[in-house]
Amino acid sequence: MGTLSAVDELLQRIASEFETLPRQLQNVASYLEKQRANIMVQRINEIASGCDVHPSAVVRFAQRFGYSGFSEMQAVFRHDYTEGVTTARSYQQRIRKVIAEGDGNLPTSHMALRFIDASRVGLDELAKSLDAEQFEAAVDLLVKAENIYVVAVRRTFSIASYIVYALQHTHKRVHLVSGLGGMYREQIRSIGKNDVLIAISYPPYGKETLYCSRIAHQHKAKVLAITDSALGALGREAHITLLVNEGSAFAFRALTSTICLCQALFVALAYKLELKVEETIHPGEYDD
Which residues form the SIS domain (predicted)? Predict the structure, then answer.
């Protein structure tokens, strides 16, 4: 789990204990997730007001998760923001950082092995943490869907493109919300109550993906989220959430686990659909 930021680790702990928290502390938990980018600059009274609780509840929340008080917990969010800025730098800047921190000339084969190791760690984590019930529910959701919409932006766009390609090998009507020409709104507006949106995003969440998720909810469609936190901006309101924590090397996160999960979704769906077809065929129907 070393590939997760401290804030992501905290949010995962919160997610696992969310149902056991008193109502006031649940309010704080939800607020922290929604405002994670702003927590570092907010005063405790502002946070308490946003949660509709007394400031002492914010302190109790921090202590519940092992911090001495609000200030210590806030420092975690501040550090996460600083690291996020570093991660969001240009590719060239990140490569220069690798060079600056390296011990002499780093063999390129060694870099390849580091990425392979990071991907392997991510896959091992996916295997250990996969929620079988959520996965089965996700497949059933897709089986029942009249239309399947898929949205992901920037680094995860390639995953969306792949899963649309794969799903088009079934009889399902599949739509890639590509945003070509800036037309996210136009491409998602026809989604309906019998449809499913597959939304893929990780922090910092793509605003286009979150927009499509909101529209799907408004139109009574189901949302299948592939993300890293059940309490995250995408996972919190999804009908089904499949969690993935990618490995990383040299400040670049892999996509290995995400595409593996998407491939598994496609194969499982195709298997279920084929079983349904076989159930409607009488023995000997196609015999000569």
Answer: 138-283
- Dump strand ranges (E) for the chain: 147-151, 173-176, 196-200, 222-227, 240-243, 248-249, 252-253
DSSP 244: -
Same domain, 232 and 163: yes
Which pLDDT tens digits describe the chain residue by residue (288 residues)? 334 567 878 888 888 888 899 999 999 988 887 777 678 778 899 899 989 999 999 999 999 999 999 999 988 887 776 655 444 455 556 556 655 656 556 677 877 887 788 788 888 888 888 889 999 999 999 999 999 999 999 889 999 999 999 999 988 999 999 988 889 899 999 999 999 999 999 877 888 999 999 999 999 999 999 988 777 778 877 899 998 887 666 666 778 889 999 999 999 999 888 866 555 555 555 444
Strands 222-227 and 196-200: parallel
**Residue 173: strand pairing partners:** 147
CATH number, domain containing residue 71 = 1.10.10.10
**269: Cβ contacts below 8 Å, ≥ 6 apart:** 139, 142, 143, 167, 170, 172
Burial of 221 (0-12, 13-18, 19+ CB in 10 A): buried
Q: What is the CATH number of the domain that holds 204?
A: 3.40.50.10490
Residue 112 lies in a domain: no
Q: Is the dihedral of CA 214, 223, 21, 36 positive or negative?
A: negative
Total domain count, the chain: 2
Alpha-carbon distance of 225 to 239, in angstroms, equals: 8
Task: For residue 107, tell me if it sits in a domain.
Answer: no
In a domain, 93, yes or no: no
Cα–Cα distance measured from residue 138 to residue 225, given in angstroms and rounded to the nearest whole number: 9
